[in-house]
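job 3f2a | input accepted
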Amino acid sequence: MRWRVRKPFRVFARGTSLRRRVASSLGIVRLILVPVILLPIYYLTFPMRAIVDRIVNVDAPVATEAGQVSTEMQEALMAQSNYFLLRDPKYLQQNRDAMAKIDQLLIVCANQQLEERATIQIIRDQAKLYRQSLDEAVARMGQPEPGSVEQVQEVVRAYEKDLNDIVKHAKNHPPAQLMEDLGDRLNSFDLEITQRLVAQDPAFRQIAFDLESASKQVLQLSAALHDRSWERVQREHQEARQLVRRAEIVLLIVSGLTLLVSVWISFILPRAVVKPLVDLREAIDHALEGDYDVEINVEGRGEIVELASGVRHLIEHLREKEARQDLGVRR
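job 3f2a | predicted structure (331 res):
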């Protein structure tokens, strides 16, 4: 019974050696792993880095500094009230220090957050108007008049009485209502001081209006700046989470494609490299069993082709030798 190899040997990479074919196959396997490695590096290096950099260096610092502006403005207003009440220069200096710090904070904010420069400039203008109005108020107030100490004591005693009443009834009110009552009493205390100043100097009414208007603008705009900055921080956190999810999806897709290509190569590589060697071995086994009717067709160049050519020549030599022996026996 004869066995014939009719299927020619075809080389996976024509004109290349077995070593190069194996090297090319391994190179392809390594190449498909490159996206899996580069994609995390890309997402962590460029988009994620930009988001984190903006949060850390822009939006979060601006939000913190805007909150400090509001705090410093409250300190300035408290120092203003104390100065109007006691005429002590140390409170005036505290007010000026707080306003100077506000201006420094706003300059830093403007350099960090370019989108808010217009709003920050408005805050600086209102702070400047407040300082000018306070300087005008200080110039008009001058030295304390006789009897002003007794007036101060009366205002303070009335203020203490109202606070004691609020504290006594604190158990009957929720905390929010208590804080609202305290805020209203504080505002009424400032208003009473202002009314006394206006009573002494009617021209002080416009100054008091300018002080109140400018300080409210600083507080409202700085609070709005703080809120917008934190909204940006939260939005960028959401963008970072979406970027992570997007990276996970892309990596999942790339990993799936990599797996499919790897499986495909696992079928192609044995067929291109191992199968010709198996066919050669089977051809040699048939020749060793005495079946020399084997046809080996080769294409290309390389170690497998050279080996197949050598096997073919060996089988042809054995076939010719067997033919001569048969011819000698017949004679």
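job 3f2a | Confidence is low (pLDDT under 50) at residues 1-16.
job 3f2a | closed
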